Each structure stands twice: as C-alpha cells, then as structure tokens.
C-alpha cells in the first residue's frame, strides 16, 4: 500500500514539475486549428466591416452633396441623396453587428491565450498538493482534496473549452455560413457599382456662355444620358444592396449567437458533465 502511495506521489510531483515549466506550450493539432480559426474569423469579419464602411462613406458623400447642373450659369440642384437613407441605415446596423462579433471573437481569443499560459502552472500546483496529500487520511484534508480536484478539473475544462468549441465553430461556419456570406458580399460589391457611377458623375466646366450655347445640344444630351444611366444603375442596385446588407446582418447575428454563445456554452456543459462522470464519480468511490 505504501509502495503504491509512494509511486503515485512521486509520479504526481514529477508531472507537476513538468507542467510548471510548460506554460504557453500549445498542442500540435488542436491549438493550431484554434489559432487558425480565430485569425480567419476575425480577418473575414474585419474585411466585411471595411466593405461596409466604404459603402457607408460613399452613401454619405452622395447624401451630403446636392448634384449641381449648371450649364451656361443656369443652375438645377438635385437632392438625390435622400433616397439612399435605407442603405445608410442598414450599413450602420451591419457595422454595429460586425463590431460586436469582432470584439467578442477578440475576447475569446484573449481568454484562450490566457488559458494556454496559466492552465499548466495552476494544474501543477493542484497536482503537487494532491500528490502530497496522498499520505494523509484526515477527513478535513479529504474534503480539501475534493475541492482542489474540482478546481483542477475546472481549469482543464477552461483550457480545452475554447479550442474544442472553435473546431466545432469552424465546421459550422464552413458548412453553413461561409458560402452564404461570400455570396452576399460578392453580390453587394456588384450592386455597389451603381453608387460609384452616381458618385463619380460630374459636369465639366464650360468655356463661358457662348461656348455653352454653341455646344449646348450635344453637351446636354450627353450628360443627360450619362445621368440617366447613373440613376438607373443606382435604382437597379438599391434593392439588391439592401437585400444583401440584410442578409449579411442576419448571417453575422447567427454567427455571433452560435460561435460566441451557443457552442462555447454547450461544449463547456458537455465537458463538465463528462468530467463529473469520469473523475469525480470514480474519486468518490475510492
């Protein structure tokens, strides 16, 4: 019996020493996939946010400036930017959702990195205490041992919760969200070309009243066609832009709920149940 306790105690102390000096060491497969997931998820959300801000900036430019048509000093002012209010509102809401998602992913990444650094030394201390307490059979110490064991199991769960949930998140994202988000972004970029045409529409300066009168027919005809095409492109694209902004908003709300809330909590719950079944139950029967 004493020989078994001696082997258990020495083994535990050796493992505790090894753990103490292994702070920050990452597991080859699981942690590599976790790092790749966080980097990719934050990067893609950031690109979408940048696209959203570009659209918002372009809409703001058009909204804040009336289009002035002044051939020969005869002025016509068109406040066409007001029709872009729905797009402006949708980009603002999508931006808020994306900022929330990026911030939440950043916090998860930080928590994961902290767990990688702190979990080994904390487990080392717990294991060292348990290895020493093997030699004692005091009821109070036994209760303290159970508390330490529960704490150690909680640390292990915290260490593996985010890596396991990130692997699950990556699978969910690849099979459900990724294709739909890419398609919505692609359609949004194509529809945005209409806004660019309108933003770039301008009338060149003329060479005075006489020059304007001389070239008025061809000049106005050319510019009216150009303006008509720009408005037509904008009108055709507005519905698609709003639709894809809504689609991206819904998708990223889903990403936030699943990746940041549902899957991490579900994995944590499963790990707690598994740990209780495997460790605490067997420990209680000893």
What is the H/E order? HHEEHHH
Number of helices: 5
**Overall 3D shape:** rod-shaped
As residue ranges, the low-confidence spans are: 68-77, 202-215, 282-286
Summed over residues and divided by their number, the pLDDT gives a mean of: 75
- From the N-terminal CA to the C-terminal CA, the straight-line distance is 14 Å
How many structural domains are formed by the residues? Answer: 1
Q: What does the oligomeric state look like here?
A: single chain
Main sheet strand line-up: 1-2
Strand content: under 5%
Amount of helix: over 70%
How many beta-strand runs?
A: 2
SSE-based structural type: mainly alpha
Main beta-sheet strand count, sense and barrel state? 2 strands, antiparallel
Characterization of the model:
This protein is mainly alpha-helical. It has one domain. Helix content is 85%, strand content 2%. It is built from five helices and two strands. It has helices spanning 2-20, 30-64, 85-133, 139-200, 208-284; strands at 67-69, 76-78. Strands 1-2 form a two-stranded antiparallel sheet. The chain is rod-shaped, with a radius of gyration of 31 Å. The two termini are 14 Å apart.
């Amino acid at each position: 019996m004493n020989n078994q306790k001696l082997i258990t105690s020495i083994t535990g102390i050796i493992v505790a020493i090894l753990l103490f000096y292994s702070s920050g060491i990452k597991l080859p497969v699981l942690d590599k996939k976790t790092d790749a997931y966080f980097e990719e998820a934050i990067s893609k959300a950031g690109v979408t946010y940048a696209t959203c801000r570009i659209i918002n900036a372009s809409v703001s430019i058009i909204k804040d400036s009336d289009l002035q048509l002044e051939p020969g000093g005869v002025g016509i002012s068109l406040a066409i930017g007001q029709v872009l209010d729905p797009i402006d509102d949708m980009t603002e809401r999508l931006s808020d959702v994306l900022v929330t998602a990026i911030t939440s992913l950043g916090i998860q990444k930080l928590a994961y990195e902290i767990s990688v650094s702190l979990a080994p030394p904390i487990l080392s201390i717990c294991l060292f205490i348990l290895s020493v307490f093997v030699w004692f059979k005091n009821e109070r110490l036994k209760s303290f041992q159970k508390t330490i064991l529960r704490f150690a199991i909680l640390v292990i769960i915290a260490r593996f919760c985010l890596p396991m949930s990130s692997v699950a998140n990556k699978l969910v994202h690849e099979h459900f969200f990724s294709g739909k988000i890419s398609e919505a972004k692609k359609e949004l970029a194509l529809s945005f070309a209409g806004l660019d045409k309108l933003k770039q529409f301008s009338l060149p300066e003329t060479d005075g009243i006489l020059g304007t009168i001389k070239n008025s027919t061809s000049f106005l005809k050319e510019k009216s066609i150009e303006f008509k095409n720009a408005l037509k492109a904008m009108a055709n694209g507005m519905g698609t832009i709003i639709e894809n902004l809504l689609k991206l908003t819904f998708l990223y709300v889903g990403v936030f709920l699943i990746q940041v809330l549902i899957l991490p909590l579900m994995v944590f719950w499963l790990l707690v149940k598994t740990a209780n079944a495997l460790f605490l139950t067997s420990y209680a029967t000893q």
